[in-house]
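# nightly structure sweep
# worker-07 picked up a monomer target from the shared queue
# config: single-sequence mode, recycle default, output format = structure tokens
# input follows
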Amino acid sequence: MTIRLLCAYDKYPANAIVALDAGTEAGLIAAKQATATLTGGDTYFVPVQPVQQAQPLVGGGRASIKAGEQVPISLPEGQALTITGAANTTGVAYLLDPVLGGTNSLRSWAIGAGSFTTPAYAGTQQFLISCSAGSVDVLVGAAVLNIPAPRPRDGVVILGDSTAQKHSVEVPVTIVDNGNGTATATITSPQTGQNAYTGDRVTFAGMVDSKLNQINALILSHTLSGALVTSVTYATTGPYIPVSGGFAPIMYLAWQEAGYGSVIWAKAMCGATFKIVGNYSAGGADSDGLQSVIESAMGTGASVALFKVGTNNVYARGFTADYSIASIKPLMDRCVQLGVKPVLTSIPPNTGGTGALSAKLAPVNRWAQSYLPQIGGRYVNTWMGSANGLLYADPASVVGLPSTGMLADNAHDARLGAWAGAKRIAQALLNYFPASRATYPMACDVVASGKIYFDNALLQGTAGTTSVGSGTITGTIATGLVVINSAGSQAVVCSIVPRTEAVDGDPLGNNQRLVISGLAAGSVVTVRIAVSASNYAFGDVVEGLARVRISSGNTPGSGAPLNVTPPELAVTVSTATTGADKSYSCRCLDVVTPINEAYSLTLDTPPYQFKKGGSAIHGALAFMRHEVVIYGTGAAGHVTLDIAHPMLWAVDPSAA
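# output follows
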């Protein structure tokens, strides 16, 4: 039997729940010194010698406890606990609250059979490990045991929560764990242009079993129904962030960049001077969870790591400011150790803002603003970003609310929020990827490659054509281009304008200018390069690029447009059997919200290996297309669209 002591007995304190021999228990109960009612008691654990580490970053402290025992542990900054439970073990690891003291905990981890590692923290942390059944082994050691081999670094890797994961186009799926290191995702509504084939890499989210939410998962096989992929089977043995989903499962296509992504827009604003080499983000992730993928992210070869994290720290977990800082700092420091520049965006405004939450949020942003420059990184204050004349954060709000229209829901960027944040992120990234890195069409590159699918990037000649639809198209169009009124009755006036260094930044070739008026909601104008691609081969890694400048339709070259979306760039490869597959730069998923500002972008589709299965699966090549598309959002819309340097080429697969 087990009893609860009403007063101290032997080595046991009052209120302890203990198991003694039957005679002793009966005697204590008869003497009113104990009771068989256990409610309100504390299970007694035998104290074990504490584990202390005198020197930070020196591992090796170890403790072993068995059922009924507990051990306090002092964990130095930058180290982590590896906790291993034997078979049939149950226990709990507590991170103790340094303010409240005692056994009050900030968070806890259940201990069972197997091993796991806690995050590393800034500053010394106190833990309490208890074992109720079986046995537990605890090792204090360096938080990072595997250092990636040195390699040339370039590009940006993204780490964060769902505000960063949504930078790719989403495909709804249902997922079943096959129990053999693989899972099968069935596509809810297969769509033309959203196929993912064997050998592609995709990311999954939304499952309660977090190992199914694989990042950059390898597709092992796919099933086809006609021209559409209906399901894919993928490996579940790669990196993932240990957070449960519990929302509608999603497959993310990294080669289709979404126009809700602030980093995607920032890349375009920077002149596409860098590649995004990986996205290690997950819905529900906090800074603790990112500890599990930081090494994989560093292994991508990125020279800059951009973190969008903290929303879940504050709004989902309720972390204190001190806890968030202690959890975020090791991520920044690990980047610096490996020669990667960390860029950390502010914890953004949220529609659930309150005074209490602001107290947990504002100190983290202030710390980041001070600490990141000290270690050679950058802090991005997205609160000061703007779109259509509005700040991201409502300057009149004392609890950190966003301005109207910035968020699609309580936390995720809408078109305006992504645009406002992108401006600030671009300012930071230009420090690492200056405009001088931009890709330009030079004749020697064309000759050397032999894989250029469009050979008029300078937009010379006047043999371009039109498809007027219900509107009108007049003027001069460069050879190889087709200007299309895809929907609506707008008027388009075309001209070829020589580029100059003073206006355009370089004198290389011409701009194809479209002055568009009479746009209405639902209007669509497309500028297409359609090529026969006689030198295309199945398995080519294809990339497209176009520079665009947006100004007023009333004063071409200056002023702001009205009621028009930012443009998107789509590259399409279509075959006789499986139809069209697409990669996107800044895909326009929102066709109702305008950006009424003047700006310049370089739209650059991610390198993507189209039609991996070859002609045996896909049939003969039908066409390749490179299309810049812009959408009207309201009455009396107007815009001047200048397009330059449209390029479509194959890249070295080893460099993609």
